[in-house]
Amino acid sequence: MTTERDQTNNSTRGSLRLAPNVEELEEHKSKLPRQYVNFTFYRARPEWRMLDDAGKSQCKQGFIETIDDFRGQLLIHSYSTVGLRTSADFMIWRISPQLDPLQEMTGRLNQTAMARYVEPTLSFLSMTKRSMYIEKDCSEQPEDRVHIVPGQSDYLFVCPLQRTREWYARPQEQRQEMMDENLRIGSKYRSVKLHTTYSFGLDDQEFVVAFETNNPSDFLDLVQELRETKASCFTLRDTPMFTCRRRTVAECLDALG
Questions:
Q1: Which phi and psi angles does 219 have, rounded to 5°?
Q2: Tens of pLDDT along 176-201?
Q3: Is the pTM of this model over 0.90?
Q4: Alpha-helix runs per DSSP H in 70-118
Q5: If I label 117, which of 15, 202, 222, 235 is the partner at 20 to 30 A Cα–Cα?
């Protein structure tokens, strides 16, 4: 991918700024906390399909109940990748102001009977620049261009992004010009919502980019156009790319067979 858009700044500006000044950063830090964002992909082991129906039902119920126990602490959304990717069958998208609930939830899931039959194959950890995600029915923070209600579209496309070192050696003005080009292209595809989160020092990638849309064809056309931009020359890695279909956790598990 070639998009590196900071959505948190777009609420007050018409164009992207790669490096807000120190005063702006300090103001943002004092007003709103950052959020941790995690995308974890799971795959069913072959042993799962040899389990009888009663055993499957019991395993699924315990797994679902454990996830539901954490919905008061985390924003949680689930997606199926069955038939869309061989390396994963479903994905859980979690958002939290703290890391501890993410670890606690994973530890609890590891203790369920379902953990014998599904295994995480990939996990991306990142952070927002400031708090930007809210619950769907949150009355304290009504949705606006700063606060985003995630998980509202049928499809989510997720991938890591890493720039070349040469990108960071370029003057800010040049990088700004290239990102403005990306922004102009992105503005043509109103049906695609971009989520950019940051992984510097937290994970192997530098960014995690996720795109929500109800129209996968629009996303395909967007990516094809972005491949031809100047900024694309400075992309070191933007794979693997996952196509995810929004489903309930129960639907994700039922699709395992």
A1: -65, -45
A2: 999 999 999 999 999 999 999 999 99
A3: no
A4: 100-110
A5: 202
